[in-house]
Structure prediction request, 434 residues.
Amino acid sequence: MKIVNDSTCSWINDLTSRTNIKSLESNEDSEWLIIGAGYTGLSAARKLAQLYPDQKIIIIDAQLAGEGASSRNSGYLVDTTLNDGFTSNKDLDNYKKKTEIYNLGINAVKKFINDYQVDCDWNDCGKYFASSKKEDEKTLINFSETLKKLDFEHNLLSNHELSKRLGTNFYNVALHTKGGVLLHPGKLVRAMIDVLPKNVCLYENSSLLSWGKTKDIISCEFKNGKINTKKIIFATNGFLKSLGIKSNYNFPITLTASMTRPLTENEFKAIGQPKEWGVLPVRPMGATIRMTKDKRILVRNTAEVHNPFKMSKFDLQKRSINQKIGIKKRFPQLPEDIIQSSWSGVVSRTRNSSQIFEKIDKNIFAAGCYNGSGIGVGTLFGEQIAIKASEENTEEIQTIEARNKPTWLPPQPFLNLGVKTRLIYERLRARSEI
Ligand SMILES: Cc1cc2nc3c(=O)[nH]c(=O)nc-3n(C[C@H](O)[C@H](O)[C@H](O)COP(=O)(O)OP(=O)(O)OC[C@H]3O[C@@H](n4cnc5c(N)ncnc54)[C@H](O)[C@@H]3O)c2cc1C
Prediction:
């Protein structure tokens, strides 16, 4: 099925249009084929090109490279996340493993931007986990205990301090972690496209329709051509399930976000001229909200089971109204109609929040399912799955593989029913935080 995306994402519209776009128009053979050109696929391609400068590497995407979730996210490169459940010592051990992966992810992105001198509005200002509900302080105190045990620098904040820092009176309690970075996701992924080495051939607007393996050759069918490859890496994240990859272990979730125009000087003064900041919700379905360095406000407050291939204009507008309300609640002094764009993006989730990093079969590999933290982990997994596919090992691979594997999911319709029920429950719990 064709992926039809809205063309209204502010992050993408900040970039200059690309002119070097090629689609697959004939049959080809290659040593390596990567399906999906987001952070994961592009990082895999870059690493393979370094490892095999004389081999042909094809990377192919159903839409324009990088213009899936990799350009559509909120731009938090995270060191820690909150919404997981980690109370016993056993869970602490799991949480530690997870943060070790986040840390490797941050290092992978840092190395990439240093090696290629990338400007992606990097700001290591940390991030807030915040709530308007006083009773959520308990959750934050528990979280603080976990962070202390693992040596993460952080502090708890109350309403007064928060309103000074964020320019809104909305939040009553928060925990600020020093680690973690805010960045421009579109600029980061565009840089990954721009630096692809010469032996990487990028095809766009070319959707993989079907694939199969005969002896040692993997054959992939596209609308206008076929690629026969010796090795393949699936890096389609929210679309892994639709290609039959680990389909009983992951499922797509659609997120929508909106961004305002830049605030005027007067509007910015009216909210106290805060420095750039990013807030993540304490309750899982609450809003992610960010003040960018150029004075725009980004809000993401939906996560749902939806057709991952398309969201209609009407559906997007409905969600945008919800986001307008989210901004109004926090910044009542700002005008009503300041949202400039709204967009949707698809991610993938697993039941136990573990990622997929696997050899699926001989010469067939897959990486994905970052459960909302794919900027760093996607970059890391892309590079490391390329190394794994080359039959090599690294400390990073050992750290990744030390985590639990994703757990089995029930078949449809039970899966959608279960996920929808859970999302409704979480949405009700987070009503005040939208
Ligand atoms: C609104 C939103 C907010 C988010 N916020 C954050 C955040 O703040 N921090 C964070 O770390 N993460 C965040 N995420 C998640 C993050 O964007 C993803 O985890 C990350 O982009 C995954 O990268 P990827 O390369 O694996 O997948 P993608 O960027 O989704 O790339 C996969 C590519 O595969 C292509 N594809 C799919 N099917 C086919 C096919 N059949 N044939 C060819 N190509 C195909 C798609 O077109 C797509 O370009 C957010 C996501 C969204 C949508």
